[in-house]
Write a structure and sequence with these properties.
44% helix, TIM Barrel, single chain, 316 residues, alpha/beta, 13% strand, globular, 2 domains
Length: 316
């Protein structure tokens, strides 16, 4: 979810679900140790609980980056061992780390020694044409010995050669049964599943076999789906907020960001373009919020334009 789940996106998602665990986009250890830390790690207090996802392979660097993340107030450190992009591979981390389970275990141990918050791992079920269950079983077993208790498993192989990151999200087949088998073999571990999950029916089916579900792109493109999650999965009261309520809350956030950080509303609005997914008038609403010709207007005026019907009324 690089360049997708930034703090503005997460603020929107938190408006829709108070209890869902949110994750940052992957941030490399190099960016934290040698770059602009506030730019990478600043987040809104409203986002809790929120996990920092790291990309890296050197245990010492991972430990330092994890400590920085804890000091900034993150609730969890997650090590990405699933990203298949060539840029990530050149940095010797992401999915290629599944070939080096012992190194991942060293990184997990170093991070656990450095922080008091949970350290978790996200990974694939295999890489390239390795489709043996034994491969992912041994990876999980080795990393678990280092103290990792939570594994988020993308139920596809990552092809490190021949497929783009986008193709890696679609072409390798989903094999949910592999993740279920991991849970049966490691009942003491928390096993969550990721990959291609788009409906509550599939979520509920998977929760009969594993401990959790991670949703990525569907939550981004259709964020209103999240509005039901607190009631369905966390035993909390259903939200009474309307689409317009959420939009107005985002406008207030845009105004706050402009005052405090000189952030233009246009950089925030892109994350909520799916808010009215499937509703009448959604196409025009998206067009207004994404129209660069309106960038000179205040966000509240753009919202008024986006929501005014021909008869002058506002939608719910």
């Amino acid at each position: 979810m690089l360049d997708w789940t930034d703090r503005h996106c997460r603020y929107l998602h938190r408006l829709l679900s108070r209890h869902t665990l949110l994750y940052t986009e992957m941030i490399t250890t190099g960016a934290l140790l040698h770059g602009d830390v506030p730019r990478h790690l600043r987040f809104n207090a409203e986002e809790h609980p929120v996990a920092l996802q790291l990309g890296g392979s050197e245990p010492g660097d991972l430990a330092k980056a994890a400590k920085i993340g804890q000091d900034w107030g993150y609730d969890e450190i997650n090590l990405n061992c699933g990203c298949p992009s060539e840029r990530v591979q050149r940095g010797a981390f992401g999915a290629c780390l599944m070939n080096e389970a012992s190194l991942v275990a060293e990184g997990v141990k170093a991070m656990r020694d450095a922080v008091d918050i949970p350290v978790t791992v996200k990974h694939r079920i295999g890489i390239d044409k390795i489709e043996s269950y034994d491969f992912v079983r041994d990876f999980v077993g080795t990393v678990a010995e280092a103290g990792c208790e939570v594994f988020i498993v993308h139920a596809r192989n990552a092809w490190l050669q021949g497929l783009s990151p986008k193709e890696n999200r679609d072409i390798p087949p989903l094999r949910y049964e592999i993740v279920a088998q991991l849970k049966r073999e490691f009942p003491h571990l928390t096993i969550a599943i990721n990959g291609g999950i788009k409906t509550d029916a599939v979520v509920q089916e998977q929760l009969q076999q594993v401990d959790g579900v991670m949703v990525g792109r569907e939550a981004y493109h259709n964020p209103w789906w999240m509005a039901r999650w607190d009631e369905l999965y966390f035993g909390a009261p259903a939200s009474t907020l309307t689409h317009l309520d959420i939009e107005q809350a985002m406008v207030a956030y845009m105004e706050r960001e402009a005052r405090e950080h000189d952030t233009h509303w246009y950089a925030i609005a892109r994350h909520m373009l799916g808010l009215r997914h499937g509703l009448p008038g959604a196409r025009r609403w998206r067009q207004v919020w994404s129209d660069h010709r309106l960038k000179h207007l205040p966000a509240r005026e753009v919202s008024a334009i986006a929501n005014t019907r021909p008869d002058g009324s506002l939608p719910d």
